[in-house]
What does this fold into?
Amino acid sequence: MECEEIMERFLELDNGEGLPGEIAGHLETCPRCAAQVAAFARFTESCAAYADFAPQRDIAAGVMARIARAGEEDSPWESDLPLSMVNWIGSGLVLLVGMLLIPFSGMLQQLVRDMPSLGIALPIALGLIIAIYAALFTGSHIETLSRFLRLR
Amino acid sequence: MRRESGKDPDLPAVGRVLSGDREGFAGLVRKYENRIFSLGLRFFRNRDDACDFAQEVFVKVFERLGSFRGESLFSTWLMKVAYYHGISLCRSRREAASLPEGIEIPDTREGPQRLYARKAAGEALKGALGLLPERYRICIDLYFSFGMRYDDIAQATDIPVGTVKSHVFRAKQALREALKNSAAEDCGYGM
Ligand SMILES: [Zn+2]
It folds into this structure.
């Protein structure tokens, strides 16, 4: 029953797997098995046509148009403000350092002494600036952030 | 797509798209549009719906490209996204995965003999598909028509690899019987 064993082993092979030497050797001497293997090869070759139907429309053009449209709708900032992550973080740091240095400004200390209400208004204004900056940053990086959170 | 080696040939293109080359994605679409459209024909019986399906799949893939970890081939991951999208659209209608019928077979330049061989192959494949419960027919289709490996089919469909192997093996045994006549003609033996 050598032929049966050989064919069983042949049927177990995976797509793209080469013929093991034992099977190849048998096929050289056994026309019956060789014909079955050849019939299988023709069969798989013919089947490939069922995965190769051509669409009647230009799929790529449609996809790229939809991607472009979605990009405009999802994040209007991206096209108007093409700032990289490094630029965002850099300008954020500059802003923060500027704020931290405010108490050391002699002119400002003089102003606060003249107008005590400025002592309350200034922290509120600075807080607002930070909040607006954070909101802009989040809004323009919403996709990156959500991807980052999903991966955690 | 028959795999030549373990390396993913699409990885460089995926990397370029992820680093901002949106237009590069069109190349990946062109490479795989026939496959995804063909898979769409399993879920929908008409070309228009299959085209819409293919477009939706590629848009989804683009949106999720950042989550592609390269643990499988890009082509396998793409098939997975497509398969699950098809299932989710068809769940209410019927289970998918039967060969598209009444649709012209590509490449009509073939001679009548090859066309006949292809028709016979189609019949044999349908016969093998008919042996399996509907849920598993996709394994046979992905193996023979799409040329996917056992591991890749398992990854794309979430069917255990052992189950994929055993179903494909059963189908191959049935096909062997069905193909015996044409093999016998070839070697001049009765089998
Ligand atoms: Zn033999």
